[in-house]
Amino acid sequence: MRLTRDVAFEVTNTQFLARLVGRGLGVAMLPSAYVPRLGGVTTIQVTDAPARVEYAVWPLAAARPRRPRSSA
What we know:
This protein is largely without helices or strands and about 70 residues long. About 10% of the residues lie in helices and about 0% in strands. The chain has one helix and no strands.
Protein backbone atom coordinates (compact mmCIF):
# COMPACT_ATOMS: atom_id res chain seq x y z
CA MET A 1 0.00 0.00 0.00
CA ARG A 2 1.37 3.43 -0.92
CA LEU A 3 0.57 6.43 1.28
CA THR A 4 -0.38 9.73 -0.31
CA ARG A 5 -0.49 13.07 1.47
CA ASP A 6 -3.79 14.97 1.49
CA VAL A 7 -3.60 17.62 4.23
CA ALA A 8 -6.81 19.31 5.38
CA PHE A 9 -5.23 20.98 8.43
CA GLU A 10 -2.01 20.88 10.44
CA VAL A 11 -1.40 21.15 14.19
CA THR A 12 1.77 21.63 16.24
CA ASN A 13 0.68 20.14 19.58
CA THR A 14 0.95 16.34 19.77
CA GLN A 15 -1.71 15.96 22.48
CA PHE A 16 -4.19 17.97 20.40
CA LEU A 17 -3.23 15.90 17.36
CA ALA A 18 -3.88 12.67 19.29
CA ARG A 19 -7.32 13.95 20.33
CA LEU A 20 -8.22 14.76 16.72
CA VAL A 21 -7.07 11.33 15.55
CA GLY A 22 -8.85 9.66 18.49
CA ARG A 23 -12.11 11.30 17.42
CA GLY A 24 -11.74 9.99 13.87
CA LEU A 25 -10.79 13.31 12.27
CA GLY A 26 -7.71 11.99 10.50
CA VAL A 27 -4.44 10.13 10.79
CA ALA A 28 -0.98 11.39 11.67
CA MET A 29 2.67 10.70 10.94
CA LEU A 30 4.93 11.32 13.96
CA PRO A 31 8.53 10.66 14.96
CA SER A 32 8.85 7.56 17.14
CA ALA A 33 9.82 9.65 20.20
CA TYR A 34 6.20 10.85 20.53
CA VAL A 35 4.53 7.42 20.39
CA PRO A 36 4.93 6.43 24.10
CA ARG A 37 3.17 9.66 25.16
CA LEU A 38 0.04 9.12 23.07
CA GLY A 39 -3.12 7.63 24.51
CA GLY A 40 -6.44 6.65 23.00
CA VAL A 41 -5.04 5.92 19.54
CA THR A 42 -3.54 2.94 17.74
CA THR A 43 0.00 3.21 16.40
CA ILE A 44 1.95 1.19 13.84
CA GLN A 45 5.55 1.58 12.70
CA VAL A 46 6.02 2.60 9.06
CA THR A 47 8.94 0.44 7.96
CA ASP A 48 9.45 1.62 4.37
CA ALA A 49 9.41 5.37 5.04
CA PRO A 50 12.11 7.51 3.41
CA ALA A 51 14.98 8.63 5.63
CA ARG A 52 14.71 12.07 7.21
CA VAL A 53 17.70 14.39 7.18
CA GLU A 54 18.05 17.24 9.69
CA TYR A 55 20.56 20.09 9.78
CA ALA A 56 21.90 22.40 12.49
CA VAL A 57 21.69 26.09 11.54
CA TRP A 58 23.33 29.15 13.15
CA PRO A 59 24.19 32.74 12.13
CA LEU A 60 27.26 33.28 9.94
CA ALA A 61 28.71 35.81 12.39
CA ALA A 62 28.55 33.36 15.31
CA ALA A 63 31.43 31.13 16.25
CA ARG A 64 31.37 27.55 15.07
CA PRO A 65 29.79 25.17 17.57
CA ARG A 66 32.34 23.34 19.70
CA ARG A 67 32.70 19.62 19.40
CA PRO A 68 32.42 17.73 22.69
CA ARG A 69 35.77 16.72 24.16
CA SER A 70 36.51 13.03 24.14
CA SER A 71 36.86 11.49 27.57
CA ALA A 72 40.07 9.59 26.78
